[in-house]
Every structure is written in C-alpha cells, then in structure tokens.
Amino acid sequence: MLLAGIDDTDSAKGMCTTYIGAVLAERLSGFCEVANLRLLRLNPNIKWKTRGNASVCLVLRTKKPAKAKSVILETIQENAVLKDPKTNPGVVFYEGTPPREFKDFYWRCLREVVRIRDAEKLALEHGAEAHKFKNGRGIIGALAALGSDLPDKTYELIAYRNRKNWGKERRVDPASVYRMDAHTYPLTFNNVDHASSRILITPHSPCPVLLGIRGENRWVLTQAFKKLVVNEPVAQKVIYETNQGTDAHLQAVQNVAGVRPGSSAILKGRVTRAPRIIEGGHVIFSISDGDASVDCAAYEPTKDFRWKVVCLVSGDAIRVYGGVRHDHPLTVNLEKIDVLGLEEVYEERNPRCGKCGKRMKSAGRNQGLRCKKCDTQKHGKIRVLLNRGLKKKTYQVPPSAMRHLSKPLVRVGFIT
What we know:
Alpha-Beta Plaits, CATH 2.40.50.1010, 4 domains, nine-stranded mixed β-sheet, five-stranded mixed β-barrel, 8 helices, 23 strands, elongated
C-alpha cells in the first residue's frame, strides 16, 4: 500500500489540486490499483489558502512504488502553477498503514494554524517521504491528507474540461441542473441556491473543473451526472471520498476565553449587544458567557440569513458556529446559529374599540383614548407580545454562502 498526499498545486488564476489527482489516477492505472481517492478540506480560516484549502490523498496498491512516486512528482512538476509566488506544492509518500499521529495531525490541520516545520518533523519521525517545491508549504496539507479520518463522509463527482476550454464559459444546461436536483435531493445537496436562483455545481474560476456534484454515495452521484445536459466534452470524471459537508472543522469551546483566532468554534452564550447593520449590509452583535464577550458577524453574502440574525435581542440564548477571524476584537464569522431561548418583547399599542374593532386614538392631553366612531373610551395603552420572527431552531447561511466543510441542515441526522 502506497499513500500519496498532495497539496498547494493550484493558484487563484487556475489549476486545481483535485485535477492533478484525477490525472494521476489515469496515469497510474496501468501499473497501480487506485484503491481510493480522497479530497480533504482543511482549516477554512488559513490566510495562505488559494480557494477551498483542499488536499488530496491517493491510496495505491502497487508492486512498483518507486515508479509510482516518480510519475507523481513529474506530474506535479508539469501541472502545478509554480510561477505563482503563492503556490508552494508539497507531496508526502507513506508505505503501509499510517500511524495514529498522522490522524491527530489531520485534525490539527482542520482546526489550527500549523507550521511547515511541524509537518517536516512528524514526517521524519515516522519514515514518511516528504517532497517540497519552493518553500513546500503544501507538505502540511499533504501529510494531513495521509492521516485523514472520516467518521462522517460524503462524496463528490468532479468532471473536468478539455484544456482548450479552460477559462471559457461552462456549457452546462441550467434547466438540467434543476431537474437533477429535484430527482436526487437530499441524497445530493448544494446543487442550487433556490433563493437566489444560482447554480452551484459549476465554479466561476478559470480552473479545469467543469462541475462538481456532492452527495451521500457514489451510486447517486453517477445517476445525478447522467441527468445533466453538458454541451462540451468531458475530459475526465472521478469520484472523491471527502470530508465536505460534515462540520469536521468545528470544535466546541467551553467559554469565550477559549476562542482562538484561526479556529472554527461552537460557542454558547447570551446576546449582550443587539444586532446592528453596518456599512456594506453586514450585521454585527455580541454574545457573552457571563465572564467575557465576543463579536459575531453575518456578512452581506449570507443574504436572508442576516434578517434572522437581526431579529435577535439582548438576553436571547443562542449557540453560534463559525470561523474566528483575526480581527481585534475577535469576531466569529457565522455559519449557523441555534436559537435556544427567546426573550419576550412587548410593545405598547392603543387598544381596539370593543364595538367596531378599530384602533382607538388619543382624546387629547390627559383625556385617555377614544373611538371617534363609537365614542367609546378607555384609559391607557395595552402591552402586546410581539412576534419576533424567530423560533427555537437552527438557522444556516444559504448554500451560495456555505463553506465546503459546513454540514447542510438536510444532512443533520442523515449520516451514511
């Protein structure tokens, strides 16, 4: 068994690490059995990431490991965007079953900021073979991929384009995407954002990816792809086993003092500073655990999710989920919230007339309230309990604003 972890081969201007994984699966198939392909999303808060902070792991059975390693390194040299100063590929090989320490490292890479020397030291201690291109930052994600642990997992079918079409408009019929979604949801998810009428399976970058469908198993993805109308050639098509849509990046913290920048936290508290809308349409509020407080933000791309957040008031009990920005003060970039308890909010209103039902009006200074039609009178206003527009439930950002790792609500309790 030979495991190959690969990371940081892409660029904001193009390429995709998953594409290199697909190319390798094809090139190695002549003398290797490709037992599995894994796509791992790592800490989404890392500032050095290009787009989705993905690494891949190829699980190979081969009698020619040296040849396999040579092909992998040559393919990366050929395809990685090495001219980009931010692209620093890394490859890590390991023969046999990875040690427990690699699994621990994977979880660290999901939830912390990890240094290159940490990866180098761990690889050396356990006989893993690490290859660095340029500064080699990619060995962090490559080693994490080798230790990937998926207690919950999903799959993604990714179809790639002919090179001549890279950078051009993707020719996937939108109507067929909606039909596919209608037939396969919830076994596939995040295909479209119905609220904004956006197709989500096709990226907008000039990368080799034509489309990607995420789902619960390989069979449903194969069926879903057959329902699409694709009006351009498909160069390659693979199915990755992934940690996408699993919330694997989130970690519960006991108190606000335990919130760390660069992590993704689950935190319980009460609203202490009511939501306010700031320039750009972002919504900011604060929660406290009684000892300390932290800001929480629903940014403009989260669309209607903000209008649920803005209904919160001081005293509401909530649980927040999200990445912790390196701002001062620290800010939780919300992915979802659990409303645990709602304060009762009242408003004073003029009572209605008992005869005609119309709202009564002031009869003059210190003269109470009067219905002009029926001439009935009452003294003072009444307190009315307001409908806040919130329920004790979970609210999540729309699919178009969802991180790769975030678990869609449709998957809660739906784990295969």
